[in-house]
Each structure stands twice: as structure tokens, then as C-alpha cells.
Amino acid sequence: MTEIGPVELLRRRVDDDPSRPLVTFYDDGTGERVELSARTFDNWVAKTANLLVDGLGARPGDRAVLMLPAHWQTAVWLMACWSAGVVAEPVPMPGTEPPDAEPAAPSGPYILAAAGEVLDTVIDDTDAEEIVGLSLHALGGPLADCPPGVLDYAVEVRAYGDRFTPDPSVTPDHPALTIPGRRVTKTTLSGAGVTYEALAAAEKWGLDAGDRILVDMPFTTLHGVLCGLVAPLASGASVIIQRNFDEAAVDRRVILEHVTAVAGLSGWNDATGSVRRLL
């Protein structure tokens, strides 16, 4: 198995090609488009990791439950958790679970990062030691209504530095990602395990540095994490994450963004959401 984790993949990308886009995000519901180079993405990761460690007291081996939609900030939180040695557990947004799924509720204690739109449903979560609310506004605006006891991510993260020094005890062999399964089954992978899966997926899908992959799927499955972040990172490709998919916009987006592969798009992939090459 590979000896490096996703954090090392990001470090290589920043060293080799810091200015090229790594993550582009579209929200068809708001008309938002955000593009982050590898360096800018890395700065957000560092600030968020510093928030986790210095602001929330997270230590290696702690857990962070991410109740967030497909979004560039979700990708940032995943990588920030891995940088800090925190085990990231992305969970479905309320109302988005498959009809036959009975996801087990995360058992505490943990840090909870939740989208502003679902804060009302999690505010009384007694297992969450800290709750961080994300407005997900295009311009980084604060929460419109921040409940008592909730940390406003957009406000707080600005105060933290854009360089992060990881705990030397954090290695790629440490647990990094827990994925909820059907019924009560969960899968936890180490950082090295995540990278191994990403490299295998990138090879299977034929991804390389010239690719731009358009993804419309949540980060709540291993497939979603691979397509939406780690496989593009491992292969040198870039990813376009979209939310509130507008089917009428996809043809133009494929052209404007020079898309070479798609994953999870209704009508463009099979039911598994496997990556489909266009070029």
C-alpha cells in the first residue's frame, strides 16, 4: 500500500503546480461560480486546520462529522481534518438518504460541521462537543442567524493563519475517513488507504493532469470522495463540483470548462455514477 496520504498529495500539487485550478464550484441554484487554485485551496485548508486545532481543541484521533452538501468548502474540511489528524465522517444531509438506508447516527463525542440550512435539526445534538455552522455563501458571508453555542465558520476562520504545522505524530497510517454504510455498517480508511483507492481509481478511469472532471455527487460515499477530490488530486487533474444541478446548463458548462470526464450526472452516467470519459 502507498505510504502517503491525501495531505502529501496536496503538498506535491502545491509544490509542482500552485497556480492551476484544482477545484471549481458551481451552484446552479444561486448562479455562483468559485475557482480555487492549488495554492488558494491549500490556504483554506490550513486556516481550517488551524481553526480545528487552535480554536476547537481538536487532537489527532478526534472525529469531525460533516453534515455538508457537495461544495468546495466540504472538500476543504475533508483535507483540513486529514491535515490535523482528525477522522472525517461525512454524513447525508437530512432528507437526502436513499429510501432503503438506515444510517446509524454518529456516536459522540465529536466536532460537528453543519450547513446553515440544517442547523435547526442539529442544534440539540448532545454528542457534539462543538458545532460549527457554514453559511456556504458565495462571498464568504456569515450565517444569517447564528444560534447560541454555534461557531460561525465564515467569521471565525478569517482569524487563522494560512500555514499549518501538523502534529508530527500524524502519519498516513492513522484513521482518516469514515464512510457511513447501509444499515449500521461503516468503513474507516487510513490516509494511506484513501490515497491507495484514489490512485487505483485514477488509473481505472484514465485520469491525468490534462483532465477536468465534472462531478455531481455528495461526499458521503467513498466514490464521492474519490471523484470529488482525491482522485483528481492524485492524478494531477482538476475537479468541477456542482450543486443544485441544472440540466439545461450542462452542455454549455462542458464546453466552457473544457470538461473531459463526468461523474454522477443524471443522464450522463450509469446508475453507479462511474466516471465517463468524454474525450
Helical residue percent?
A: 25-40%
- N-to-C CA distance: 31 Å
Q: Number of DSSP strands?
A: 13
| 3D shape | globular
Q: What about the largest sheet?
A: 6 strands, mixed
How does the helix and strand content classify structurally? Answer: alpha/beta
Q: Largest beta sheet: what is the strand line-up? A: 2-1-11-10-12-13
In the predicted model, the low-confidence regions spanning at least 5 consecutive residues are 99-104
Strand content: 15-25%
Q: Secondary-structure element order, as H and E?
A: HEEHEHEEHEEHEEHEHEHEE
Instruction: Look at the structure and give the mean pLDDT.
Output: 91
Helical element count? Answer: 8
> Radius of gyration, rounded?
17 Å
Question: What does this protein structure show overall?
Answer:
With 279 residues, this protein is α/β, with parallel strands linked by helices. It is 31% helix and 23% strand. It is built from eight helices and 13 strands. The chain has helices at residues 6-16, 38-55, 72-84, 119-122, 153-156, 191-205, 222-235, 250-256, and strands at residues 21-27, 32-37, 63-67, 87-90, 110-115, 128-134, 150-152, 175-180, 186-190, 212-215, 238-243, 261-263, 276-277. The chain has a six-stranded mixed beta sheet with strand order 2-1-11-10-12-13. A five-stranded parallel beta sheet has the order 4-3-5-6-7. Strand 3 (63-67), helix 3 (72-84) and strand 4 (87-90) form a beta-alpha-beta unit. Helix 2 packs across helix 3. It is globular. The two termini are 31 Å apart. The relative contact order is 0.17.
